[in-house]
Description:
It is a single chain. The protein has a single domain (1-60), classed as Gcn5-related N-acetyltransferase (GNAT) (Aminopeptidase, 3-Layer(aba) Sandwich). It contains 2 helices and no strands. It is mainly alpha-helical and 60 residues long. It has helices at residues 8-19, 34-42. The chain starts with 7 loop residues before the first helix and ends in an 18-residue tail after the last helix.
Amino acid sequence: PEYQRKGIGTLLLQQILLEYKHVYQKVLLTDNTEKTIQFYQSAGFIMDTDMNCRAFLKMY
């Protein structure tokens, strides 16, 4: 929490998007909290609630 709302996450995300600007489609899996949703929407991501696909994860 002490590092939140200081622009660090935004800068990191901008660097990641710049590094992978040649990648057409970017898919992000994250938690569903209001703070997280607002953060990614403010960065231009849209929440797709009508995707006709499934995600498969293997957690370690």
